């Protein structure tokens, strides 16, 4: 249920514009890897290349290789749809489907591709996914109510439940707490600790304290200036990055001197 | 509510100006100058629509009244077209039926096509092609209905005739395709096809806009779950656009119900019968086409009878719009508006 990701020499383009340059890293299974860095440094762009969501934007493409357990996600006969089924994603703003009930939201991914599922299996899956997202007790009595009626933090946990319901190998989170209040943020951070037992977790965050709290490894991205490509400056154990990083730029960023 | 231009309490100058300011602040009124004028303009525009609607309804009611209260004999002798003793309801009923049948068929033909075009433009076509296509569809709306009538009569009718014969021969057991297929092709089926083409632009344009407004967030949510493009459209775009498409269809239905010229030019009219045989000639007539056909020669009570038919159309159109609103409102909770 958790697999490793190897990234080799990835360049990310929007049309002619080189957005992120020369990233290589290894993301270990059953761990939380955090991406930090100033705005515009390409960390969100980079996380989107890990499940080929980057390609949704017209003109965007990638060269280099991203391997999941040795299989190149950008190989010629790899279907991006299959990639995204294996590597789930949680977005910055909670985005439950507004026209669906809580229950249908959880089942949305499972019901894609006309996969048939019996009522009792569906019930079990809804319960286990919502329990997995620490949301079951709050919503078990109103599963047929619209997901958009929940609070922001609950909606984000609903999105996490929806993501883990399809049983992915990896869960990517793109600033999952940036639209949430501190209490909801804490709930999500606790949940991330739970999820890492079963999944490989990658999280982009603006909040350095959050990276320090939740992650095992931290990657620091930086950008030389406007119009220049973002780069991976260094990646190490979170404790090392926040205490004795090897690069001056990292030191400056984590100590709050810029960004 | 803005108080930026009110003086600070500590710096309040004495005199009449400060009293005026204080009064404004107390009443919560921040309008001055053109802001006030604009409020009148907006309110006036809003009231104008109500006044117009009331005026039309009043006109229809007052002028239809003599026909509604007249005896069957008076009516049938005033309107030469009908046999002795035909009641007003017997006139109007089949016309309402014909109008609804033509409009509903047109809607059934146009809506799926319009949604297809809308989705193609919003989610499939390359940007440049999408622009050109959007333009062309809008252009369809600019063609006058007389031209549609000519085209339907001279071009479409001969083209679709073989299809209608095939349907009549092979699917004649189906009530809609029963009866003798019109030898000229001037049947309600042909009218419906022309009406469908006429309402296509409005439905397409509105659906396209609605589909384009689907939040990127929801599209990406579907894609990130491993949805193909069609699945993404099904889970994110169509549910989001549902009420918009219904509104679009109702706009189209409104036009189809009221269309006069194209129907008048194509259909070979039939009166006083309720018939489902859309391929046969001389079976149907629509209200609008009927009024246009008879109005020039009508006098006295016959005019009142025509206006009564118009009143019926007015009521139908209103009912259609109210039903549409009810449909849209029914699942408001799930619309994403909250």
UniProtKB/TrEMBL annotation, chain A:
Alphabetized SUPFAM superfamilies for the sequence: P-loop containing nucleoside triphosphate hydrolases (SSF52540)
Keyword annotations: ATP-binding, Nucleotide-binding, Translocase, Transport
Top-rank taxon: Bacteria
Alphabetized InterPro entries for the sequence: AAA+_ATPase, ABC_transporter-like_ATP-bd, ABC_transporter-like_CS, P-loop_NTPase, PstB-like
UniProt GO MF annotations: ATP binding
Residue stretches making up the ABC transporter domain: 5-248
Pfam families the record matches: ABC_tran (PF00005)
CDD domains from the UniProt entry: ABC_PstB_phosphate_transporter
Protein name (Swiss-Prot/TrEMBL): Phosphate ABC transporter ATP-binding protein
Species of the source: Myceligenerans pegani
UniProtKB/TrEMBL annotation, chain B:
Listed Polar residues bias regions: 1-11
Main location, first listed in the record: membrane
Highest taxon, organism lineage: Bacteria
PROSITE patterns given in the database record: ABC_TM1
Cell cycle found in the keyword field: no
NCBIfam families in UniProt: phosphate_pstC
Family: Belongs to the binding-protein-dependent transport system permease family. CysTW subfamily.
Protein name stated in the entry: Phosphate transport system permease protein
Gene behind this protein: pstC
